Amino acid sequence: MPRYNPATIEPKWQKHWEGNRTFAAPRLPEGEKLYVLDMFPYPSGDGLHVGHPEGYTATDIVCRR
Description:
Layout: H1 6-19, H2 51-64
């Protein structure tokens, strides 16, 4: 397997993400303003566990709806 070289790989994916608006959130119409705060993951035992991505996924879904 070749060594990972971010200078050659990252521009391709950044262009893809920008073109597909992967990380763009739609603007809400005028009305109630929202503020969402999420905590940083902290190790539990030997490291991260399945609850960490589960929590971040839920927060992401709520923020994008």
